[in-house]
Amino acid sequence: SQQGEEDPQALSIQEGENATMNCSYKTSINNLQWYRQNSGRGLVHLILIRSNEREKHSGRLRVTLDTSKKSSSLLITASRAADTASYFCATPGRTSGTYKYIFGTGTRLKVLA
Amino acid sequence: DTAVSQTPKYLVTQMGNDKSIKCEQNLGHDTMYWYKQDSKKFLKIMFSYNNKELIINETVPNRFSPKSPDKAHLNLHINSLELGDSAVYFCASSQGLAGGYEQYFGPGTRLTVT
């Protein structure tokens, strides 16, 4: 089944640096979502990008989508310690004809103060 | 106001026991989900309900039985718990089932089976 794979699995940076994480998927999609999960918490939706969009911004977040390469990237600029979390991409898929989102394996980001 | 709430937050029990996890959302959403997150943080959908109707039932043992008494509630009952059931279970909701809707997650229930 289709699944997003995030890369890298783990990333450690200094506060103020930019963090980039990537997501690759296998089949055609019409949208892709990114979520953040702080330790011990539920996932929080960050941004949705549709297949007809190449780039989208939300505050310090920038998401790109390259449907020809079946990949997306999430860039966090000027990172803060509070950005320390796991980041997941979610891509739509189908099971028995029913729509669902499939989550990737996640990138664990650690921002050092 | 908590959008999606789950109880309990922690659940420690022995093998063979039966337990339930409750979920409630106050967002007025039509669709609710149960996910299981294993120790490697892999998140996998288990069930999805739309307007109280079971829509998605992934390959989950029959020991897991969801119940949706109304659109705002989705409970998960687990019979004869096994060690492999230890995980964090998340409830989520979204406005609709079709693509393009963000999902709102509960805080999770950490289940430990000993």
Task: Describe, in plain words, how this protein is organized in 3D.
The complex is a heterodimer of chains A (113) and B (114). Chain A is mostly beta strands and 113 residues long. Chain A is 0% helix and 60% strand. Chain A is built from no helices and 11 strands. Chain A has strands at 5-7, 10-14, 19-24, 31-37, 43-50, 55-58, 61-66, 71-76, 85-95, 98-103, 107-112. In chain A, strands 2, 4, 5, 9, 10 and 11 form a 6-stranded mixed β-sheet that branches. A 5-stranded antiparallel β-sheet of chain A has the order 1-3-8-7-6, with no helix packed on it. The termini of chain A are far apart. Chain B has 114 residues and is mostly beta strands. Chain A binds chain B through residues 30-31, 33, 35, 37, 40-45, 48, 50, 86, 88, 90, 92, 95-96, 98-103, 105-106, 108, and chain B through 4, 35, 40-45, 48, 55-56, 58, 90, 92, 97-100, 102-108.
Helix/strand layout:
The complex is a heterodimer of chains A (113) and B (114).
Chain A (H helix, E strand, L loop, with lengths): L4 E3 L2 E5 L4 E6 L6 E7 L5 E8 L4 E4 L2 E6 L4 E6 L8 E11 L2 E6 L3 E6 L1
Parallel strand pairs in A: 2-11
Antiparallel strand pairs in A: 1-3, 3-8, 4-5, 4-9, 6-7, 7-8, 9-10, 9-11
Chain B lengths: L3 E4 L2 E4 L5 E7 L5 E7 L5 E8 L2 E5 L6 E7 L2 E6 L8 E8 L9 E2 L3 E5 L1
